[in-house]
Each structure stands twice: as structure tokens, then as C-alpha cells.
């Protein structure tokens, strides 16, 4: 869709990345790191200062302690962390429970290991997990469950009750959890992010994957990290070492210094909530229907009052003929075209959001 947007000149609210600049301080820290000649290989697990910064943030936000030496690894984006966590845990015939709609890298990564994805549909207008259906899906072959909260593409967030239900259901099992928390700081309306690491029973069986790219508006740097208990992290690092060995060195120094100021991540929820509210209030009077996203920087819009076309066809029409690019949600493992919802990224400047909403209001 980004390619289509650039070919047609449509306003690009499709792929999830900001169209505004990076904090000048972070750019300056990156320049300093280059000048200080941090230009050779970094240590395999990441530089100690960045692993310590992650440990400190995780402790202060979620009350969970991770040992920077043995339980934290810096990765090439969350994408590498997700793949390495799956590849070091899932073996042929293992079942992996995935909730759909789901981010597009989970299912193919499971299949690449010979694993068997067990896809469960999120329920209702607010895309909740049906814990009874989950309990029935658990089998002796279940190796892992993949969670994503705040959730791409629906913008929903898991509650404390959800995680307690998961904790209880997994207690008698040795099922692993892969928790994709790349939007951990983007939770709105006074809510707080329920990281799996807040729950000791889940922490001990979980890989938590996160993204500096999503957090600090630097998706092109491809920087992320993984948290896991030492025994799981040992296996993870064997794969990390083979896949990539070590991650961009100057960026690690820049991020470690930037994270010393906690306001750089603590203010992100409010920042993106304002963007969501601006976009949605500018859509007032349009024929799109929506429930405001509770987290992430994505908003689903229901176009059933405008067209009965499938979402692939409608999103293409919107990009080519109307001038706004979005993502049809059927591409998130839904594999069918009976959805009348599109995903719009609101990590954009005020001007971009207002211009897009103005066009959408006319439909
Ligand atoms: N998980 C989800 C849910 C995402 O939306 C993304 C997209 N950025 C990723 C993982 C990948 O993150 P990264 O860009 O850090 O590889
Ligand atoms: N995570 C981003 C999204 O959902 C983009 C990542 C990608 O294009 N692979 O839009």
C-alpha cells in the first residue's frame, strides 16, 4: 500500500510509521556515537548500558526485574526478536495459538519451523479473546501462544482480567508465551499497559518483544529487544547469534543515553492520544463508523455505510481514486473478504491527518 500511495500520490495512512521527524536530541546522540567511533561490532547480546536502560524501564513501569546479563537481548527490531523466539521454541508438529486478526509475521514464522498455527478469531466489535475457546484449543501439542497488546490492527488492549485468565489456564501446562508489546507505551484514556511480565506466573514462561523503532519514531533504524527468563534467553541467543550476531552499535549508544530521560517514553501515550482524537474529531459527520482505538497508532474505520465492496477492493479504490491509502484488515490472517473495515495509521502530522480526514468526510 505504501508503494501504491507513492505511485498515486495518495496520503499514506497505510504502513505503520510516523511522517514527522525524530527528536533532535536523539539525532545528536547518534551523531555523537558515530564520532566516538562506536562503529565496530557490538557485543552479541547488546551493549550493557542499553540492556541496563531496558531493565530499569521495565522495573519502573511493570515492577518486573530482568537481569541485563542473562535475560535481555538487543535485537534488529521486534521482527527479529519474534522470529528468534519462535525459531528457538517451536519444532515440527508443535501447535501455536494465534489470535486473528494477527500481525502478519507470526503465522509464516511458525510454519517455517514446521509448527502448526491454531488460529482463534477475536470476538465482538471490540475484538476480545474468548477464553473458553482458548481453553478448548489448548492441547498436549500446544507449545506456545502469541499475544499482541496493544493490538495491531484493531487498537484493542488486553485487560488485567485477560492476563489473569491466561495465567490461570496456563498454570497446569508448560506452554510458552510470546508477547508482542511493540506498542507498550501507546495506551490511551488513562488506561495502563498490562505487560505479561507484571504476572509472575506468565513472566517465567514468556518472551516479551519490543521495538525502539515504534517507541522513538525510528522504524528505519530497525532496533528492538527481547526479555525472557535466563533458560529461555539462552536458547534465544543461540538463534540471535546465527541470524544476525549483533545489532547496530552506534544506535545502541544513542538509545541508552536517550532513555536516561524517562519522559521520552512516558509521554508517548498522551502524544498519540491527541493525534487519535484530532483524526476522529476531524472525521465527525463522515459516514465511517468507529470505536476509538484504546492503544497503538492505528484506527479501524468501518465503511459499510459507504460501500458493500470487499476491503481489498475498497482500499484500492480509496488509494487510487480518492487519495487516501489504508490497509484492508483481511490481510491480517483473516483470509476472507467479508470485512468492511480498514486500518488507518494516525502517527502523522496534524496537517496530514486533517487533509486525509477532509477527503474521507466527503465519501
Ligand atoms: N509487531 C507488531 C505488532 C508491529 O506492528 C510491528 C511493526 N513495526 C512489529 C512487530 C515489528 O517491529 P520492528 O519494526 O521493530 O521490527
Ligand atoms: N508494523 C507496521 C505495520 O503494521 C509495518 C511493518 C511492515 O510493513 N512490515 O504497518
From TrEMBL:
Its cofactor is pyridoxal 5'-phosphate. The keyword Translocase does not apply. Keywords: Aminotransferase, Pyridoxal phosphate, Transferase. Residues 10-359 form the Aminotransferase class I/classII large domain. One of its GO terms (molecular function) is transaminase activity. NCBIfam families: PRK09082.1 (NF006569). This is Methionine aminotransferase.
Amino acid at each position: 500500500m505504501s508503494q501504491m500511495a507513492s505511485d498515486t500520490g495518495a496520503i499514506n495512512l497505510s504502513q505503520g510509521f510516523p511522517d514527522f521527524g525524530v527528536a533532535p536530541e536523539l539525532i545528536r546522540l547518534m551523531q555523537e556515537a558515530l564520532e566516538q567511533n562506536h562503529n565496530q561490532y557490538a557485543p552479541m547480546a547488546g551493549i550493557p548500558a542499553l540492556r541496563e536502560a531496558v531493565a530499569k524501564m521495565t522495573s519502573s513501569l511493570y515492577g518486573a526485574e530482568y537481569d541485563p546479563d542473562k535475560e535481555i537481548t538487543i535485537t534488529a527490531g521486534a521482527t527479529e526478536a519474534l522470529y528468534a523466539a519462535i525459531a528457538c521454541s517451536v519444532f515440527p508438529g508443535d501447535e501455536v495459538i494465534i489470535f486473528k486478526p494477527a500481525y502478519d509475521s507470526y503465522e509464516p514464522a511458525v510454519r517455517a519451523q514446521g509448527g502448526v498455527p491454531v488460529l482463534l478469531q477475536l470476538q465482538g466489535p471490540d475484538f476480545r479473546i474468548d477464553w473458553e475457546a482458548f481453553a478448548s484449543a489448548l492441547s498436549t501439542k500446544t507449545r506456545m501462544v502469541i499475544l499482541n497488546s496493544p493490538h495491531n490492527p484493531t487498537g484493542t488492549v488486553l485487560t488485567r482480567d485477560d492476563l489473569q485468565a491466561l495465567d490461570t489456564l496456563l498454570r497446569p501446562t508448560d506452554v510458552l508465551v510470546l508477547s508482542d508489546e511493540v506498542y507498550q507505551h501507546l495506551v490511551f484514556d488513562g488506561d495502563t499497559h498490562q505487560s505479561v511480565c507484571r504476572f509472575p506466573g506468565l513472566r517465567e514462561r514468556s518472551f516479551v518483544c519490543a521495538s525502539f523503532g515504534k517507541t522513538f519514531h525510528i522504524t528505519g533504524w530497525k532496533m528492538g529487544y527481547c526479555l525472557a527468563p535466563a533458560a529461555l534467553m539462552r536458547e534465544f541467543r543461540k538463534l540471535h547469534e546465527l541470524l544476525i550476531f549483533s545489532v547496530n552499535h552506534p544506535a545502541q549508544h544513542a538509545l541508552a543515553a536517550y532513555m536516561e530521560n524517562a519522559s521520552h517514553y512516558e509521554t508517548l501515550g498522551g502524544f498519540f492520544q491527541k493525534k487519535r482524537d484530532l483524526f476522529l474529531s476531524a472525521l465527525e459527520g463522515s459516514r465511517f463508523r468507529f470505536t476509538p482505538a484504546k492503544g497503538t497508532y492505528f484506527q479501524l474505520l468501518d465503511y459499510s455505510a459507504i460501500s458493500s465492496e470487499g476491503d481489498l477492493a475498497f482500499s484500492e479504490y480509496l488509494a487510487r481514486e480518492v487519495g487516501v491509502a489504508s490497509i484492508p484488515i483481511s490481510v491480517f490472517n483473516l483470509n476472507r473478504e467479508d470485512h468492511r473495515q480498514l486500518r488507518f495509521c494516525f502517527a502523522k502530522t496534524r496537517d496530514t491527518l486533517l487533509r486525509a480526514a477532509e477527503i474521507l468526510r466527503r465519501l
